[in-house]
């Protein structure tokens, strides 16, 4: 994508620098002969203005007005905040203003919890997630609203450079042409900001092609995943009220959408305020106080506690969409805490009156051995590997797993659903 754009731009410049003077010289001679000097000057000035205006408009449309004047090396060596404001300039045509919704009595009922504020003990300078009033760098506001009968919006937390994993997800389980008769699905990939301008341009090119990505105004990093999740809640609140369900996953996950549509969603279709997930009960997950642990949390946070309140493992979380605006509202009152699963599926929802958790374990969440099981399909047609979620270590594995999931489903249900012919992605 990137190299194409560059080539196009080089071509564009060449056209003016190489053939421009020839055309101009020819026109000058013609004009001088027939009009005289004053009229010729007028014609030359008009032509030049036209060229400048056209070139400028074209560049605005490409969003490269600022970029053209910048030395890329200089940009890359700048401190992070410099790069951030640069990205803002470059992409300002894509930045959108967020709309505020009027509060229903239900949302008004959500109030801060002082005890929780004390436990989280966020530093005063970054008390609430920065995403709460943040802008988007790029978004497709119509992703949901342009779709009738949207059953599921799939939200994927993804790393900026995971282009291939996103592609695999689009081609496989998030592609509803494979299960359109059961429901309509759309996918939205959530991203933060990057320092690398070239990476940013590649992401923008990908966005222009698929229009299924949302980039927020915060640095994309492991300890900023809470910001990513809150951005998801915010965007769904503003732009995706028409989806029935929200399914949150990560970019290394494959979901068996056939099991989701036939066995999970029907159980919750008439329910409200539901979070369906791999539920971690209160007082079961330790808070790690050992400094070398990946999830180390200082004794200043959750002082005196040894374990977390209830939450969900974030690799698969299903919500009835009615509850999202309430969780987003609650997040605006929940001080920032970087352990994303605890914050997004525990602390923030804990403010919402009437919220209900259901466990997914009866739909067999076992994911580490799942691909092996699907690989041995012929021996396992008696549904012994009916797993809802598997982990994938690389894009090829996602594709193989999805093909096996389709085969299993076709075998079990028969061909009455007339699934579209699937290319065998293993070859
Ligand atoms: C949406 O669902 C309604 C009711 O089930 C149906 O009448 C309509 O045709 C559907 N629209 C689309 C575009 O599938
Ligand atoms: C979704 O699957 C269909 C059918 O295989 C395919 O034509 C289409 O290109 C896929 N979409 C994407 C984004 O890969
Ligand atoms: C999280 O994002 C904010 C806003 O961009 C930034 O100031 C902060 O340094 C980031 N934190 C980490 C740990 O990356
Ligand atoms: C949900 O409601 C519809 C319409 O009232 C009904 O047909 C369906 O059986 C209900 N589903 C469940 C799981 O209760
Ligand atoms: C909150 O954190 C500060 C340091 O950031 C610490 O001095 C204070 O004791 C903490 N309060 C509690 C209740 O843990
Ligand atoms: C799959 O089949 C192979 C060879 O038959 C066997 O070694 C392996 O244990 C099987 N794995 C599973 C998960 O059934
Ligand atoms: C599947 O189950 C049926 C009856 O429950 C049994 O006869 C058959 O042998 C099983 N098939 C396999 C491959 O285990």
UniProtKB/TrEMBL annotation:
| Gene Ontology MF terms | hexosyltransferase activity
Highest rank taxon of the organism = Eukaryota
Membrane-spanning ranges: 35-56
Task: Give its E.C. classification number.
Answer: 2.4.1.-
Question: What is the protein's membrane topology class?
Answer: Single-pass type II membrane protein
Top EC class for this record: transferase
Q: Which Gene3D superfamilies match?
A: 3.90.550.50
- Location (main, coarse): Golgi
Name the UniProt key words of this record, in alphabetical order.
Glycoprotein, Glycosyltransferase, Golgi apparatus, Membrane, Signal-anchor, Transferase, Transmembrane, Transmembrane helix
Q: Name one GO cellular component term.
A: Golgi membrane
Q: Where in the cell is it found?
A: Golgi apparatus membrane
Read off the InterPro entries from this record.
Answer: Glyco_trans_31 (IPR002659)
The biological process GO terms on file are: protein O-linked glycosylation
**Similarity comment text for this entry:** Belongs to the glycosyltransferase 31 family.
Identification of the protein by name: Hexosyltransferase
